[in-house]
Amino acid sequence: MLKTTRDGPLVHLVLARPERRNALSPALVAALLDGLDAACADPAVGAVVLSAEGEHFCAGGDLGPGGMAGDGLLDQHRERGVFATLLQRLVQAPVPVVAAVQGDALGGGAGLVAACHLVVMADGARLSTPELKVGLFPWMIAPVLARKLPRNALHELVLCGGRLDAERALAWGLANRVVPRAQVLDVATALARDAAAHSPAIVRLGLSALAAVDDLPLPAALRHMHGQLSLNLLTEDAAEGISAFLARRPPTWKGR
Among residues 19, 53, 55, 131, which one is catalytic? Predict the structure, then answer.
């Protein structure tokens, strides 16, 4: 259902329900949340790569038999809340999360993609929010998409239900790279390694600060960042980075 592997400073989280187009069952959502939390809690982890098996990246919420495993409406409501928590954790993750999107990402799958820090898409992959076609609104993923898209682009994606091809996703800022399908995982992993090559302590400090100021007015955001800069300058890795720069040598990060 979810495969987790470690490669040096990288953690790979792989959606492994290809027979169900990697649809988000309650068990898969819970496993993703646990895997992400474990990666973020490990100070040696420099980045996470989120990928999938099969032709599709993720078909969104599992509407088939067993897709809602809870007993009764309240249990099912709580299960859907776990997906909301997962999206929030992705957006606010203190380690870079890179999505390797080899195939279509629909509904909740598009939300997963939009919640990641960096996105590499296959040139044939598409993003889509088809919920209105089955009488639903994309409630859970709309706030995540709204953080990445201009309002008219958001309205077109949500209301018209079309599939956004990779090139348009790139133009709209939902993707960082569009590459041939065979190269998606390699390029995503290379981006993750680039991010993980820096001080993990400072990257975590910076990503946490960016998440904290996301909804703040500019004066409050600048005050927060001012304090974080002073904190950053007190770290051993800041001293090491400046010393290495002046000595023209590669830095050796201590993660503190």
Answer: 131
Is residue 156 annotated as part of the catalytic site, yes or no? no
**Residues 6 or more apart whose Cβ sits within 8 Å of residue 27:** 1, 69
- Select from 81, 140, 130, 137 the least CA-distant residue to 105: 130
SS3 at position 71: coil
- CB 63 within 8 Å of CB 131: no
Q: Comparing C-alpha atoms, which of 98, 105, 99 is closest to residue 60?
A: 105
Contact 47, 196 (CB under 8 A): yes
Average pLDDT over residues 71-86: 86
* pTM for this prediction: 0.94
pLDDT of residue 47: 98
How many whole angstroms separate alpha carbon 255 and alpha carbon 249? Answer: 18
Between helix 218-233 and helix 200-213 the angle, nearest 10°, is 170
Q: Is the pLDDT confidence value at 67 over 60?
A: no
User: Could you count the other beta carbons within 10 Å of the beta carbon of residue 227?
Assistant: 11
Position 74 scores a pLDDT of 81
How far is Cα 11 from Cα 225, in angstroms, rounded to an integer? 29
Q: Per-residue pLDDT tens for 113-144?
A: 999 999 999 999 999 999 999 899 999 999 99
| Distance separating alpha carbons of residues 254 and 199, to the nearest angstrom | 7
